[in-house]
Specification:
The chain is an alpha/beta fold and 226 residues long. It contains five helices and eleven strands; from the N terminus they run E-H-E-E-H-E-H-E-E-E-E-H-E-E-E-H. The protein has one domain: Class I glutamine amidotransferase (GATase) domain (Rossmann fold, 3-Layer(aba) Sandwich), CATH 3.40.50. It binds glutamine (GLN).
């Protein structure tokens, strides 16, 4: 069976096309473009991606309104069944607002929008999203956000660290995130939220290809043919 993925578009998403192209090029198969207002998702998905952008203009809190979109009920359901769900940037914000990931993304500590390549440390290779990286590997991936300051209480942070659920950490401070956390996994390990944009680093023309392995990891973990 060929790989089947869905990329959700919210009003204000602007990285949905890049995400779909990255999945198509790296994983092959079919990428369904799904509107946030749809009540359901296509059958038999192998992968769901929530892209970056400014859903609902980031009003209220980034991702807060998108998290209440009709399609999110189906996303929560599929996540509960173990389907891999990736949220990048605004997608990460939506996942925290939907309760699929712990913590919150607050305004950057410097109040500024940060848009540049950053170095990340891969904190675990024991996840379906990071299996093709090495633990401790330094990779370069771009960020572009004003609300990327990851916050969770100390007990939650300790738990995330203890359970190997910090997937990526900034190699240097970027936005004030607690413990420089750039990406976290849910308890079951099938939901990843991250502020950096792996879909913007998949070929040399973009300045590097360190993001490819994330999509290759997802594909490899499913054992489906492209
Ligand atoms: N690139 C993005 O997804 C931006 C995310 C979000 N709207 C922010 O600026 O924090």
């Amino acid at each position: 069976m060929a790989f089947s993925a869905a990329v959700i578009t919210f009003p204000g998403s602007n990285c949905d096309r890049d995400m779909a192209v990255a999945i198509e090029e790296i994983c092959g198969g079919t990428v369904h473009r799904v509107w946030h207002g749809d009540a359901g998702l296509p059958e038999g998905l192998d992968f769901i991606a929530l892209p970056g952008g400014f859903s609902y203009g980031d009003y209220l809190r980034s991702g807060a309104m998108a998290a209440r979109s009709p399609v999110m009920q189906a996303v929560v359901e599929q996540a509960g069944r173990g389907v891999p769900v990736l949220g990048v940037c605004n997608g990460f914000q939506v996942l925290t607002e939907a309760g699929l990931l712990p913590g919150a993304l607050m305004r950057n500590a410097g109040i500024r929008f940060v848009c540049r390549d950053v170095k990340l440390t891969v904190e675990t290779s024991q996840s379906l999203f990071t299996a093709r990286y090495f633990k401790g590997q330094t990779i370069t991936i771009p960020v572009a956000h004003h609300d990327g300051n990851y916050f969770a209480d100390e007990a939650t942070l300790d738990r995330l660290e203890g359970e190997g659920r910090v997937a990526f950490r900034y190699a240097e401070p970027v936005n004030g995130s607690q413990r420089d956390i750039a990406g976290v996994l849910n308890e079951a390990g099938n939901v990843l939220g991250m502020m950096p944009h792996p879909e913007r680093m998949i070929e040399e023309a973009q300045g590097g290809s360190d993001g490819r392995r994330l999509f290759e990891s997802v594909l490899g973990s499913l054992g489906v043919s492209a």
